[in-house]
DNA sequence: ATCGCCACCGTTTTT
DNA sequence: CGGTGGCGAT
């Protein structure tokens, strides 16, 4: 039981107002680090405490992990597991409801959720079958097309309008793209596939078009809470409105300055409109920051002060601290990485744990150089927003089989499996899948398909696999074993060079599957919330530095935060042009900087490698340039007394001094199999293979097998 | 006509 | 790393 006095000790005045409001719409406008999560947690606890049934609460958060975490905390507060509260993302809740009520809209509950890669696969298939590329060279890439299709759904605008406004440079292809969209839609319907956008669109349809279901849902979930409301799109706003049409018990929490997802349709005007849509809304503002020290807050307020936005709020804090954020202008990316590594080592000596520090950046590849440096210094790190376990090729092969068990008309998976067969290529695979999709019994149709010379055997094995699976009891773990049994030889042939490494992933998959007793649930979960590739990520106590894109760092905080790559052209992203996109990039920087509790380091390289391996000088990000110089401290390129200079490995300044003493380039003939070499980054290694004309494979003692090009790598022979 | 292999290029952000 | 395009082999 929460008692009222502990409540008022923990929460401030405005939070208390939000928490204890039992009925009616509430809008909480909250700054970064102001205790949004805490407010929601207490609200859940308070509701249950006052006799509201947990089943009637629906908590929508940005990630599924956030929902779990909140419910766990609320459970601790009131001595109840809160496990009967429904919590998750819009997408996962949509999935649950559509499985239950989807028949009212006329679709089978066996649909498969597809991710971005699947969507790109479909677009590719259609692109070639519609012959859209016949006479065109510059037809937009499938990634761009998927973005456009999704954007048009999320922004609730016809595709052709979107093309002429947001993608004007592609307008000459408008007709083809619209045609592609139509085919894409019917392809999904025909094959029982549903993408992320469909989940939301169909949830809204369910509420808008089927009164009985709307009634049932509104009756059941009498309390609705939405976190990160600034990241919802118009569809999601509609869903909230429709789902609460009976009771209006909605509490949304958001910060307009942290809206960073407009590229996928999020519209922070949802926050401004909320009071109009729900008349009688109580508005609560949280302006006290519980996270960062004043100097950090001064800087972040300064960042957002330059926004053209109208809704200004200035955060204040009571947390002591005098250390100003530091700005470091590095000579190049290597020097920037050295700076970060040096500071990290220093901080560790002062007693800061590695997992209390994070490095944030705009785009995934901005951290490549740093990853290399961290590796050679033996600093463990964990990259967020990188490749997920289920995104690697071998994982998808296994998942394709499991997906077909649930939805035999999933053409994408058939296609994928057929391609694993030797001597069977894209053309044949397409021919076969077309027949399978049209038949009522795909497996039987596959067995009956007249085989070709080289690949009949492979098809037979596939048919056998499915016969075995269908005979077996549908216990996920057992099914998985059968699949792995079939997959082993395929896998060893396909990934001959590095299959031992990938095998570990498969074992991990096996353990994950074992914890499920329903195959459908497993498939849904992997599509909606892919497990991380790192085993370490599962252990809270893992001692690893976090590297993350800013987008993936949303809602998190660390004691020490580095933001790297703050150069013109990197941040804001080169293709963001002034206007709303520019503003979003600024908010992105704001989000990044507000992740820091105690210390904040900003850095940028003054030299970057451009398109064709030429170095260009770049200046600092315009967002930094417009800040008041008093809000940060500049560090000179060579800080005095920094003993991290001593730990610095062989400086690549050899390149600067190299002009007069240029060493003779070694030719391939100078190396032989098995000879020992030295490399400035990777250290010593043994030559394993010589490739024509100027590259060779070297097995490094500390970094494994690498292929190097003599034109770029500076290798030296090691004597003895 | 189709498949497999090699070399090269470019990389926003994501539920 | 993943997608693509050219080329030789089947």
Automatic annotation (TrEMBL):
Reaction(s) this enzyme catalyzes, per UniProt: ATP + H2O = ADP + phosphate + H(+); Couples ATP hydrolysis with the unwinding of duplex DNA by translocating in the 3'-5' direction
Pfam families: UvrD-helicase (PF00580), UvrD_C (PF13361)
Domain UvrD-like helicase ATP-binding: residue ranges: 9-293
SUPFAM superfamilies, per the entry: P-loop containing nucleoside triphosphate hydrolases (SSF52540)
Keywords: ATP-binding, Helicase, Hydrolase, Isomerase, Nucleotide-binding
Molecular functions (GO terms): helicase activity
Binding site for ATP: 30-37
Principal EC category: isomerase
Domain UvrD-like helicase C-terminal: 294-555
EC number(s) reported in the record: 5.6.2.4
Family: Belongs to the helicase family. UvrD subfamily.
Protein name in UniProt: DNA 3'-5' helicase
């Amino acid at each position: 039981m929460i008692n009222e006095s502990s409540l008022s000790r923990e929460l401030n005045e405005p939070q208390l107002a939000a928490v204890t409001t039992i009925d009616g719409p509430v809008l909480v406008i909250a700054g970064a680090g102001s205790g949004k999560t805490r407010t929601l947690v207490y609200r859940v606890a308070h509701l249950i405490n006052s006799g509201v049934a947990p089943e009637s609460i629906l908590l929508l958060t940005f990630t599924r992990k956030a929902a779990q975490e909140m419910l766990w905390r609320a459970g601790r507060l009131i001595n109840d597991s809160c496990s009967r509260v429904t919590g998750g993302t819009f997408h996962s809740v949509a999935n649950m409801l559509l499985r239950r009520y989807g028949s009212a809209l006329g679709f089978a509950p066996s649909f498969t959720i597809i991710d971005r890669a699947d969507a790109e696969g479909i677009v590719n298939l259609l692109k070639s079958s519609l012959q859209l590329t016949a006479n065109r060279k510059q037809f937009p890439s499938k990634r761009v097309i998927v973005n456009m299709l999704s954007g048009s759904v999320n922004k609730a605008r016809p595709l052709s309008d979107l093309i002429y406004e947001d993608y004007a440079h592609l307008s000459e292809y408008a007709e083809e793209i619209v045609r592609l969209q139509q085919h894409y839609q019917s392809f999904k319907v025909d094959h029982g596939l549903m993408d992320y956008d469909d989940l939301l669109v169909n949830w809204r349809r369910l509420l808008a078009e089927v009164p009985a279901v709307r009634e049932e849902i509104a009756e059941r979930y009498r309390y609705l809470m939405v976190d990160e409301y600034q990241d919802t799109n118009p569809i999601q706003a509609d869903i909230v409105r429709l789902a609460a049409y009976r009771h209006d018990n909605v509490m949304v929490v958001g910060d307009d300055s942290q809206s960073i997802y407009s590229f996928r349709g999020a519209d922070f005007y949802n926050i401004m409109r909320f009071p109009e849509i729900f008349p009688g809304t109580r508005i609560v503002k949280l302006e006290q920051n519980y996270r960062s020290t004043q100097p950090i807050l001064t800087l972040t307020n300064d960042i957002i002060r330059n926004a053209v936005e109208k809704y200004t709020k200035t955060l204040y804090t009571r947390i002591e601290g005098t250390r100003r954020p530091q700005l470091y202008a590095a000579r190049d990316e290597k020097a920037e990485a050295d700076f970060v590594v040096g500071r990290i080592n220093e901080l560790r000596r002062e007693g800061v744990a590695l997992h209390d520090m994070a490095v944030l950046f705009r785009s995934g590849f901005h951290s490549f150089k740093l990853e290399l440096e961290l590796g050679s210094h033996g600093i463990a790190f964990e990259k967020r927003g990188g490749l997920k376990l289920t995104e690697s090729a071998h994982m998808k092969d296994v998942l394709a089989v499991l997906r077909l068990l649930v939805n035999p008309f999933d053409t994408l998976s058939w296609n994928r499996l057929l391609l694993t067969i030797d001597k069977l290529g894209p053309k044949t695979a397409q021919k076969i899948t077309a027949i399978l999709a049209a038949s009522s019994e795909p497996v039987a149709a596959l067995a009956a398909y007249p085989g070709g010379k080289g690949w009949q055997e492979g098809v037979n094995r596939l048919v056998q696999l499915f016969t075995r699976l269908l005979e077996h009891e549908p216990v996920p773990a057992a099914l998985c074993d059968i699949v792995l049994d079939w997959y082993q030889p395929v896998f060893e042939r396909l990934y001959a060079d590095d299959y031992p490494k990938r095998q570990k992933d498969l074992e991990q998959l096996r353990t994950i599957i074992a914890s499920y007793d329903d195959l459908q649930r497993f498939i849904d979960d992997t599509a909606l919330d892919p497990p991380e590739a790192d085993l370490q990520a599962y252990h809270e106590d893992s001692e690893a530095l976090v590297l993350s894109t800013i987008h993936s760092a949303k809602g998190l905080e660390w004691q020490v935060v580095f933001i790297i790559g703050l150069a013109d052209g990197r941040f804001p992203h080169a293709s963001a042009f002034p206007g709303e996109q520019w503003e979003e990039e600024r908010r992105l920087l704001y989000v990044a900087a507000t992740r820091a509790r105690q210390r904040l380091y900003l850095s940028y390289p003054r030299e970057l490698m451009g398109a064709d391996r030429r170095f260009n000088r770049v200046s600092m990000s315009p967002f930094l340039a417009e800040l008041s110089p008093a809000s940060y401290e500049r560090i000179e390129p060579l800080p005095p007394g920094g003993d991290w200079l001593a730990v610095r490995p062989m400086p690549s300044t050899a390149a600067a001094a190299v002009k007069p003493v240029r060493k003779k380039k070694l030719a391939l003939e100078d190396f032989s199999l098995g000879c020992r070499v030295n490399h400035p980054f990777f250290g010593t290694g043994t030559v394993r293979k010589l490739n024509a004309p100027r590259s060779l494979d070297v097995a490094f003692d500390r970094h494994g097998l690498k292929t190097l090009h003599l034109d770029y790598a500076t290798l030296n022979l090691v004597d003895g």
